[in-house]
Design a protein that fits this description.
- The chain has 244 residues and is an all-alpha fold.
- It has helices at residues 2-16, 27-48, 54-73, 82-97, 105-134, 141-172, 180-208, 212-240.
- Helix 5 (105-134) runs antiparallel to helix 6.
Length: 244
């Protein structure tokens, strides 16, 4: 579970960079993102290594090396091959998440990708907010793009989890309050979907009036709620077999 969460977050961080432009942000922001992804992928590789098959180990190790090369590339200006390395790192991380032997491979992979997108967009938006503390005159475009991307990813995540919930209820036939999953589902959806939507809108409203410090503080709450919701979703997936 730890490895899956770390790979999802690393994939989301790398993918979220494509909503940004080096012309508006210092290359160190991209370097820091790549270094963060490198740390997450290293933890995932270490955690998953004993139980992973050969191709999964290869994908994780490859993603880790590529993240290192991407971080090194973004220490230079312009970054030689920086965007190519970001793409390759994201692709390798996505391959590591694929579960070909599971009968629900497509659903689980869709859950992995939407979870990665939401986690990456929300955390990157919060980190972008910090950039305004040292560059208060910076344009709002990067933050607004990340907030828009975050709302889109929450909607996509809701669709995937809602479809999985529908399939799960159809599969089990009937459930009662004695089912542990039923007791945790409201908490998972409240923390992982409803709260990020509500606080995300508050962050957007604060950003519109250029209260970037307030928006950043609210985005901290979005990130915490998102992390809790996604970790709880992983627990429910392990219990039910569906990405609820």
């Amino acid at each position: 579970m730890l490895a899956t969460f770390c790979v999802r977050l690393a994939l989301g961080l790398m993918a979220s960079l494509f909503l940004l432009s080096p012309k508006r942000l210092h290359p160190r922001f991209f370097r820091t993102h790549c270094l963060t992804a490198l740390g997450l992928l290293a933890v995932a590789t270490f955690a998953a290594w004993p139980d992973a098959v050969l191709w999964q180990r290869t994908a994780l190790a490859t993603a880790t090396v590529l993240a290192f090369l991407a971080a090194f590339s973004w220490t230079l200006d312009p970054a030689p091959g920086g965007w190519v390395l970001v793409v390759l790192t994201a692709v390798a991380a996505a391959i590591a998440l694929w579960k070909p032997d599971d009968s629900r491979s497509a659903t689980l992979f869709a859950a992995d990708l939407t979870s990665a997108a939401f986690l990456g967009a929300s955390l990157t938006a919060m980190l972008i907010g910090h950039s305004y503390l040292i560059s208060p005159g910076m344009a709002l475009t990067p933050l607004m793009r990340l907030l828009a991307g975050m709302f889109v990813t929450i909607v996509l995540r809701t669709i995937v989890c809602g479809a999985a919930f529908w399939c799960w209820t159809a599969e089990v036939g009937s459930v009662t309050l004695n089912e542990e999953a039923i007791l945790w589902l409201p908490v998972r959806w409240l923390a992982g979907v409803i709260a990020p939507l509500g606080f995300g809108w508050m962050a957007y409203a604060a950003a519109r009036i250029r209260s970037t410090q307030s928006a950043t503080g609210i985005l901290y709450v979005v990130v915490v709620c998102g992390f809790l919701g996604e970790l709880m979703s992983l627990l429910l997936t392990r219990q039910t077999g569906w990405p609820l």
